[in-house]
Amino acid sequence: MADRPRPFDGIDELLDRLNRRIETAARSWETGMDNRSQLDLSMGGSASSLDLADEGDEFVVTVDVPGYESDDLELRLSGETVAISGEREHRAESGGDDENYIRRERKTKSFSRQVRLPEPVDADAVQASVNNGILTIRLPKREPSEEGHSINIE
Fold first, then answer.
1. What pLDDT score does 149 carry?
2. Alpha helices, DSSP H, located in 8-54
3. I need a surface site. Which of 13, 64, 108, 146 has the fewest CB within 10 A?
4. Is there a contact between 97 and 68 (Cβ–Cβ < 8 Å)?
5. 10 Å Cβ neighbour count for 110?
6. Which helix (H) or strand (E) segment is 62 a member of?
7. Sheet strands side by side (includes 73-78)
8. CA quadruple 35, 38, 41, 46: dihedral positive or negative?
9. CA-CA distance, 48 to 66, in Å (whole number)?
10. Taking a C-beta distance cutoff of 8 angstroms, is the pair 40, 117 a contact?
C-alpha cells in the first residue's frame, strides 16, 4: 500500500506555482499600465466608453454618459490629465414608492475615467457640453512659446 500515490502530495507545490504566476502577472500588469498607450489611466473596465481625437489645433474627448445630466458630471484638468467622473442617483418620482415597482434595475451608478493628453492644452479655453448622452470636451492645444527664457548660472 505504500506504493500508492497520495492525491494531495503535490498541492503545496501547485499552490506555490500558482502564486508565482499571479505575482508575475500582477507585475507585468503594473508595467503595462505605464505603457498602455499612456492615454487611459482608468482602473478596470468602465461602463462609459471614451474616445480621444487629435483634431489639429485641439484634442476632443468624447464620453458616453447615457442618463447623466451635466449636474451629475465632474471634470477636472490637472496638468495634462483630464479626470471625468459622474454619479447618478435614483430619484423617486412624486407619489411613487418602491412598492409600486414590479421590476427595478435602474440604481445609483457612478464612473470615473482619466485620460492623459499627449501635449499641453490651454486650460482657460477648455469647453464641455452634454448632448443626447454624449459628453464632448474640447481642449485647445497650447501654442508653443516662441520666447526663450534666460537662465542664470550660479
1. 62
2. 11-35
3. 146
4. no
5. 13
6. strand 58-64
7. 73-78, 81-88, 109-116
8. negative
9. 8
10. no
Domain ranges of the chain: 12-38, 42-91+108-143
Residue 119, CB half-sphere, CA atoms under 13 Å: how many? Answer: 16
Q: pLDDT tens across 115-148, in order? A: 999 999 999 999 999 999 899 999 999 877 656 6
Cα 149 to Cα 102: distance, rounded to the nearest angstrom:
68
Model confidence at 105: pLDDT above 50: yes
Instruction: Specify the pLDDT at position 34.
Output: 44
Overall CATH class of domain 42-91+108-143:
mainly beta
pLDDT in tens, 67-97: 888 888 999 999 889 999 988 775 544 445 5
- Please give the grid coordinates belonging to residue 118: 499627449
* Three-class secondary structure of residue 149 per DSSP: coil
As a whole number, mean pLDDT of residues 34-49 equals: 50
Q: Name residue 52's amino acid.
A: L
Block residue for cell numbers 499552490: 15
